[in-house]
Amino acid sequence: MDDKKQIKRREFINTGVRIGIGVGLGAIGVVLSTRTLSGKSVWQIDPAKCVQCGKCATSCVLEQSAVKCVHVIEMCGYCDLCGGYLRPETKELNTAAESQLCPTAAIARKFVEEPFFEYHIIEELCIGCGKCVKGCGAFGNGSLQLQVQHKLCVNCNQCAIARVCPSEAFSRVPATAPYLLKGFENKK
Amino acid sequence: MNKNARVAILIIFTSLLVFNIFGIQRFPKPEFESGYSQPETQVPSPRGAIFEYLDLAVFIGCLSLISWLVIKKRSRKGVFWLSIFSLLYFGFYRKGCICPVGSLQNISMALFNPEYSLPITAIAFFVLPLGFTLFFGRTFCAGVCPLGAIQDIFAFRPVSLKSWVQSLLGLIPFIYLGLAVLFAATGTDFIVCRYDPFVGFFRHNASFMMFAIGGILLLISVFIARPYCRFLCPYGVLLNLVSRFSKKHLSIAPSKCISCRLCEDACPFGAIDKPTGAKNKEQSNVLVKRLILYCLITPLLMGVCGWTASKYHESFAKVNFKVRLANEIMLSAKTETAQPALEVTTFRASGKAVEKLYAEAARIVDRFYIGSWFLGGFIGLVFGLTLARFTLVQYRTEYTTNKGTCFSCARCVDYCPVKE
Amino acid sequence: MKQKVIIGFAVLLLLSVVFLISRDLFNSSFKSDENPTEYNIDNLKKIDSALICYKEIMQFDPGMEQVYGISVSENNSIFISGNRQVAIFNSNGTKTKTFTTDSSAHCLITDNNSIYLGIGNHIEHYNLAGEKISSWKAYSENGFITSVAVNKEIVYVADAESKRILKYNTKGELLLEIGQKDTSKGIEGFIIPSPYFEVTFGAYNDLWVVNPGKHRIENYSLSGEHQSSWGVASMQLEGFAGCCNPAHLAVLPTGEFVTYEKGLDRIKIYDPTGKFICVVAGPGSFKGESDFHCTQATLVNDLATDLNGNIYVLDAYNLVRVYAKK
Ligand code: SF4
Ligand code: SF4
Ligand code: SF4
Ligand code: SF4
Predict the structure, then answer these.
(1) Sign of CA pseudo-dihedral A45, A48, A52, A55
(2) Domain assignment of residue C259, given as a range
(3) Closest ligand 4 atom, CA of B407?
(4) pLDDT band at B22 (very low <50, low <70, confident <90, very high)
């Protein structure tokens, strides 16, 4: 008899707590759902804040960083003396390895016509170190910019680079406008 | 979902994956005469938002299926194959992100930072497994969680731990949970994601340290089954607590246990409670006294732990970028000699006001102070309750699953000779 | 026994994982490890102080929201164009007059009796009282005038969009276009990668035009014949660094050139034949830091000279600095 009573009492308590937890969970869900994003969001770098510290190349959770250089070719001056392509001390403006600034030779230089050259980032080689970005920003038109490549980025809940970025250049942006290139507009 | 259909959808979407963004020609381009046409800047688009909902649908499907398999079908085989599917889908295909374990940080961040808006999937991933647990026990752990599944596979030679070892190690997840909430609520970091041990395997890609930690845990899994689930997972703490009050739960025997002891060593996780002996009145008196003692000790413990943790609030706060930056700037303002850190020079170059940063850092440190009191109090409470639990013996006449720690993996079911 | 060893070992491993994680988490100093791919341009910015031959003798704040162009008349009045206004200062930097314009003038020049403003795609002509005399027809719709030069009867205008120097009379009638690309005659034209394109009169009634894409300063006769040129691209002090430099040019009464390079932010003096002489002001002399990505492309918006040989520098952060020979 005594046992039965005890079991009943325990069941009653259990049900009570269960309802309590259920209501609590529901409340969290409802309260927070008023604060949800309207869509998906992804990480991106604001090129205006980035100081090309080199951490993008080394801090991504991926072995090959998801951050790459993007060449906004519409802003490029097609210069022979490219601040992003050439090492500062080079005398000859050629494609020899020792005159290239990029540590992985990820920038391809193509002669267009006198005196213009087209520059193109070979994405597989680019490690996102930002060296060329610094050079182009300092000496050129600023057409080279670091961006998170969404083809590669796994969209970590908390981006590992954002945590260490000295200029706090990372933020979440809506997936419908996933790039923050300067001098650019996103269009689907 | 039909596999072909999924492949078809996948192909359609990947073909749309390249965004086309139009540059605003900042300045007229050179007048090319060789017929050169300027290429457009192309940037690949992220995975479509629709996939997020697809994931959610798969997630709900898996949760329902696993609960049915555990409660109704009582099928170990079913549970096993579903866990393999989850490992492949949520683990290797979806690369283990976002998962319920991590989502608890999004939730705490959102609860304490009104300006933070979180994705709807994070809420769903947080609430749904808890909801299912409330009705069916920790079925999520059994067959949906990819982290659980990968360890479960490695449980080749599980050895049983002494119950005091188990209880002691079982305190780690509470501390981890407390820290995770503290850091998320102060907007500092998502440490559970940062130290997710298996996500590196899912991505085939991680730093050496993360691979090492993941590898060590898998090695441990061989002997101590599911070490992450039992002794680290902060979400497991919540599931554990909620599961204790679940409406239904997997039972070893489908009807009446005949105490044949066949299942006694079946559980690799030490989650089977043995029947206790007959009630002993005298002993029970002593126990009640001890229980009262613990009830007095617990608040004391909470106070002591809270005080201790609050002493360390500055060390906690230093994990925060802004606090660290403010510290560093203050330091370098005093000692002119050393080359200041890059973060400091960057901040100075940005032209932002130092006073504002200091004020913000001070605010964060204050939050850490309050937070660490709560953290300590919480840990003290857990200590107290753990102590008390040793005293509070429930009388059992059957072999039962421990509703808190049982993962509903249904291994023990196969050992039970009672079949209906 | 064996079991115990295994358990002990496994538990130890578990604790070591916990230790590893917490050590990583609370190790809170900034990782100031070397950036292996650091691009250090600081050493390019170092200049031997012996090479600096000018000193700053005055600076004043024109009190304008944004400044674009500067010009100095024979009697040392200083004209500055800014955000939809033009201000006139005497040689002490005291404001004597301001007047508003319909839009902002990117550049301006004074012929001592009147002011020519390069506003977007056209020239506006004002008298010293601030009344508009005329507004000229634009050469091209999207034109962008970056520099004006005036010499009694003739006005030369640099249009960066059409990449030409346009020769007008003072009434605004177009007389001549200089610099069309003509491959048959071997004329390469002006290469203008970004909106920096300068024209100025030399000391010998000739015309000097910067060809920034070529890092060259070219000499033209008043009738538009190309005569000579000088300048090399180089990070060295003697040359012009960066993608389109020099960004600004002025000529001293002695015929020496004053050049400003964006990027490395240096103002230098060359003799009339194009030989490097010395430095007026090097990197770090101006406020701020120039970087395209921080929306600050240059730190110097314009240069001017007066008959005494002083150099006027219009700092992008709203400051006029006057330099005189040491
Ligand atoms: S970590 Fe930040 S500052 Fe450094 S390169 Fe990346 S975006 Fe730029
Ligand atoms: S310099 Fe660095 S960022 Fe630029 S292309 Fe090379 S690897 Fe990429
Ligand atoms: S979100 Fe993750 S994968 Fe993407 S850039 Fe950041 S660390 Fe790399
Ligand atoms: S279902 Fe059985 S074997 Fe599996 S965890 Fe629960 S008690 Fe252990």
Answers:
(1) negative
(2) 49-325
(3) 5
(4) very low
Same structural domain, B257 and B296: no
Output the furthest CA–CA distance in chain C (Å, rounded). 108
Are B123 and B253 part of one and the same domain? yes
B302 lies in the same domain as B329: yes
Q: Does ligand 1 come within 6 angstroms of the Cβ of A130? A: yes
Three-state SS for B34?
coil
* Distance between Cα B58 and ligand 4 center (Å): 25
Q: Which domain holds residue B321?
A: 283-391
Asked if the structure places residue B39 within a domain, the reply is no
Instruction: With beta carbons less than 8 A apart as the criterion, state whether B361 and B325 touch.
Output: yes
Number of domains chain B contains? 2
The position carrying tokens 């961006």 is A147
In a domain, B271, yes or no: no
The SS3 of residue B130 is: helix
Give the distance from residue C168's alpha carbon to the nearest chain A alpha carbon, in angstroms.
Answer: 29
Q: Is residue C162 part of a domain?
A: yes
Confidence of residue C167 (pLDDT cuts 50, 70, 90): very high
What H or E segment, with its residue span, contains residue C277?
A: strand C276-281
Distances (CA, A) of B251 to B259, B416, C228: 13, 10, 97
Ramachandran region, residue A83 (left: φ > 0; alpha: ψ -120 to 50; beta: rest): alpha
Domain ranges of chain A: 1-38, 41-174
CB contact under 8 A, A74 and B24: yes
Ligand 4 centre to CA of B247 (Å) is 17
Cβ atoms of B150 and A68 closer than 8 Å: no
Q: Are residues B212 and B315 in the same domain?
A: no
3-state secondary structure of A33: helix
Instruction: State the total domains in chain C.
Output: 1
Token duo for residue C184: 């048959």
pLDDT score for B66: 95
Pair (B17, B57) in one structural domain: yes
pLDDT digits (tens, 9 = 90+) for A68-86: 999 988 888 888 778 888 8
| 3-state class (DSSP) for residue B250 | coil
Point out which residues pair with B103 in neighbouring strands: none
**C157-163: average pLDDT:** 88
**Domain for residue B42, yes or no?**
no
Domain match, B260 and B227 both? yes
Going by CA atoms, what residue is nearest to atom 6 of ligand 3?
Answer: A159
Give the C-alpha separation, C172 to C134, whole Å.
8
Ligand 2 neighbourhood includes A67 CB (under 6 angstroms): no
Side chain identity at residue C207, one-letter code:
L
User: What is the ipTM, given to two decimal places?
Assistant: 0.85
Burial string for C290-312 (b: 16+ CB within 10 Å, else e) reads bbbbbeebbbbbbbbbbeeebbb
Q: Which residues line ligand 3 (CB under 6 A)?
A: A 43, 60-62, 66-67, 148, 153-156, 159-161
Distance A69 CA to ligand 2 centre (A): 6
- Return residues 5-64 of C near A (CB < 8 Å): 30-31, 35-39, 41, 44
Report pLDDT digits (tens) over B182-209. 999 998 999 999 999 999 899 888 888 8
Q: Which residues pair with C290 in a beta bridge?
A: none
